[in-house]
Fold:
Amino acid sequence: MALSKKPVTGMKDILPAEMQLRDYCISVIKETYGKFGFTCIDTPCVENIANLSSKQGGENEKLIFKILKRGEKLNLETAKEEADLVDGGLRYDLTVPLVRFYSNHANELPSPFKALQIGNVWRADRPQKGRYRQFMQCDIDILGEPSNLAEIELILATTTTLGKLGFKNFQIRINERRILKAMAAYSGFEEEAYDTVFIILDKMDKIGLDGVAEELEKSGFAKESIEKYLELFRGLETAQDGISYLAEKLDGFLEKEVEESLQEIIASVKATKSSDFEIVFDPTLVRGMSYYTGTIFEIAMPQFGGSCGGGGRYDKMVGRFTGNDVPACGFSIGFERIILIMMENGFQIPGQPQKTAYLIEKGVSGDELCKVIAQAQEARKNGEQVLIARMNKNKKFQKEQLSKEGYEKFVEFYKNPLK
Structure:
């Protein structure tokens, strides 16, 4: 039986043109983030299964690719539950590995520590446009900075990078987990029901306010609580300043510091941004990860229906490893979706050297071949990109294929120069 030539479902092969674009984007990302003081780190793709299953990754914990124990440790006959068979898993994001890394190396790192991590992650998800089971994430995180300077720097670094990649007219949507909780508490929902309420609220952009009301009713919540909750959102529709409106309505449920901090983040970003985007307060923004403790944000692109990245503050996560909480905040670019948009828009990498193909007839050899190679070497020294290849029988098709790879100039060499 012939072996399968297709990649595993949810994975994909990357052709040269896309790989070139990916490399270009990574170089821009590293250069731009480097100017903001972020330094590159790397972590293993495999993590301890206990770390990945610690109830910090939300729905992603249901999507882990788990790894069987090896050798003598794997005993199928005596195994009674999954824990007897599995001890590792492929990472589903870069945050859990980063926090483990920081917890392990904190004494060797500066404070605050500004980390940049680019790498593949794996989720056993249902594949769809822009979503794969293996995909690259690009995260920046600041650990050890308790003030909102972390949020401001993360948003400015991310939006500056997107601007350098040619993106404009996008939105940064921002919210606060403590505002979400205060709204739920004010409305009379029990604390253990908050996650259910937030999951339903997160569908607001798809099902609208009436749809949210309907789903809350189906979930068995009291009508008085639902009406009080919806009334907050109705009031937001006419409020000039949503944050101030909610701070007033939620007096006694929300600390003044939360309002002041969020207002300062938005004002500071607006005053100092270097890219063409809008930052907006969105009280319906939830973010799925249960490890978020404060500010949360998301990138909304007009060219793409869903989110193209996001992040937030997760001050309690390091404490799960060390017993001592460390303030932490991060922002992730949706790398695969960014690449998809750029390719669909026909993005051309700027400053590319001229690509020339030297096509050599089969009979050209010895000293004649060396002369051709020497000519190519000289062109390469002068900044040209030169491909040397033997001439195919179907020269026209060969040139067409090379043209698709960006080759603009063709030089042909024959055994008999009169050709």
